[in-house]
Amino acid sequence: MHAYRSHSCAALNKSHVGQNVRLSGWVHRVRDHGGILFIDLRDHYGVTQVLCDPDSPAFAAVEKVRSEWCIRIDGEVKARDASLVNPKLPTGEIEVFVREIEVLGAAAELPLMVFGDQEYPEETRLRYRYLDLRRDAMQTNMKLRSDVVRSMRQRMWDKGFREYQTPIITASSPEGARDFLVPSRLHPGKFYALPQAPQQFKQLIMVSGFDKYFQIAPCFRDEDPRADRSPTDFYQLDLEMSFVTQQDVFDTVSPVIAGVFEEFGGGRKVDAPAAWPQISYRDAALWYGTDKPDLRNPIKMQVVSEHFAGSGFAIFAKLLEQDGTEVRAIPAPKGGSRKFCDRMNAFAQKEGLPGMGYIFWRQAEDGSGMEAAGPLAKNIGPERTEAIRQQLGLNMGDAAFFLGGKPAAFEKIAGKARTVIGDELGLTETDRFAFAWIVDFPIYQKDEETGGYEFEHNPFSMPQGGMEALAGDPLDVRGYQYDLACNGYELVSGAIRNHKPEIMFKAFEIAGYGKEEVHKRFGGMVNAFTYGAPPHGGCAAGIDRIVMLLADEMNIREVIMFPMNQRAEDLMMGAPSEPLNEQLRELRLRVLPPEA
């Protein structure tokens, strides 16, 4: 017999009754039933109930074991009484009578219990992550993650892609976040960087004549943490193709993403890729208040400025006299009660606004039909409120909420309000994955302080219209850049690349980078583009975020094996740590004390 096990803890059933077996695993829990000891023995594959009574030579040793001890047992498989069968377990029809036990690893007093559903502080869970990972929910999440990655790889190979690896130590590159720098011992005073993404390398692979590339790529960004983002490193399905249009990229990656969600989505509805809408960045901001809309929520915001211009509601009327301002409405079907409207007004105040105007439609008190109610309705009169109702397609029992000003100042809050309204009124579907391609991203934004222009999004994107587009107003320039949104999260981001040096130099010149600076920062790629670069494009899909959605988790750390905490610390391994003086001397570095 094998030194540790003849079977896993999920393998035994009634066909094994009477056999002598050997199992190894962890003590999930111990129960004493009148002198008979029952142990739920757990390994990676499942749980088997083992028992021992005073007639067993192992009884005295079994009495000493405690939760999470790692043990090996030898024993005989017995059938459970029919009344004691556990249909929830694959091994629920049998139990193993222990005749011999060996303690492979005793456990100290536990800082958190593996058995049960107790809640523990995240700091405790991360400090003792090896115990946290033993819990059933975490085992399920990590297996899901592994299966998703396998599925992605296979789907990419099936589409004719090959996987190539790009460097982990490279040059610093401004790609929207801070680099992690790595000092060079051989070149004192100089630093490598961990790649924020394989962006430049995958483009160089295309220049090298490889038609299709993909990689399950680690990426490193020194970012502020949040629930759906790791503060240090993450993994993405990275891909690039030559001689493709934007639509070719969509047609390639959409079935891969849809297939993964169909395979692992637990039966939730997945919209067919052909039905995924393509929404311009500008329309997404207008309709949903975000460039990653949750389309399970049917609410679509609209501009209603004309109904308030010159109206009796002085706040909006005066606001609209200023350039660049507008009033937007958030329809709220079924939200037509003063109680709900007051609740949403309180929400706006929590978000830092003085409030949020509203109108709701109800049965007139005199029974004559429908009437508009609320402070706004009284100020602007029945003709304007009726025009608003008709524009928004609302009826009796519905409401609308209003925000005004420069869109950039209120869009984010409007988007939050739309989400809250959809959730509270039961409008948002909960058993569906709803996808949308967001397209036509602006390449530039204006710096309000300097008056100059800076890149708003990926600087490597090909501008729509090429060089000719760059001759006009920079704020009108749109890029062949796109994101894939799902249920309020950005899952995929990509672009058709700017592969022509003269267009790239012009694009960077508008953002304040001279030719010399471009060569200094991106010399390897720019030089390569002078040797017959093909048109190319691609994208990257965030694996951690995809698994988070599939696992129905709200925090990305629940689907990462060993994540950092919210302060970018590894409490288990003690990172970041202070370097030894010998290390600093070897690297010719000096550490300054932290600022007070």
What does this structure look like?
It is a single chain. With 596 residues, the chain is an alpha+beta fold. 29% of the residues lie in helices and 24% in strands. The mean pLDDT is 94.
Quick summary:
The protein contains 18 helices and 24 strands.
Number of strands: 24
Major sheet strand order: 6-9-10-24-23-22-19-12
Strand percentage, roughly? 15-25%
Helix run count: 18
Q: Report the radius of gyration as a whole number of Å.
A: 30 Å
Low-confidence stretches: none
User: What share of the residues lie within helices?
Assistant: 25-40%
**Straight-line N-to-C gap:** 64 Å
Structural class: alpha+beta
The major sheet is characterized as: 8 strands, mixed
Query: Mean of the pLDDT scores?
Result: 94
Shape: globular
Tags for this model:
8-stranded mixed beta sheet; single chain; alpha+beta; 18 helices; 5-stranded mixed barrel; 29% helix; 596 residues
Secondary structure elements and pairings:
Elements: E1 20-33, E2 36-42, E3 47-52, H1 59-62, E4 70-79, E5 94-105, H2 122-127, H3 129-132, H4 136-158, E6 162-163, E7 180-183, E8 191-194, H5 199-207, E9 212-220, E10 233-242, H6 246-264, E11 269-270, E12 278-280, H7 281-288, E13 302-303, H8 305-308, H9 314-319, E14 326-332, H10 338-350, E15 357-363, E16 370-373, H11 375-380, H12 382-392, E17 399-405, H13 407-424, E18 432-433, E19 435-439, E20 444-446, E21 453-455, H14 466-469, E22 481-486, E23 489-496, H15 501-510, H16 515-529, E24 536-542, H17 543-550, H18 581-587
Parallel strand pairs: 3-5, 6-9, 11-18, 12-19
Antiparallel strand pairs: 1-2, 1-4, 2-3, 4-5, 7-8, 9-10, 10-24, 13-14, 14-17, 15-16, 15-17, 19-22, 20-21, 22-23, 23-24
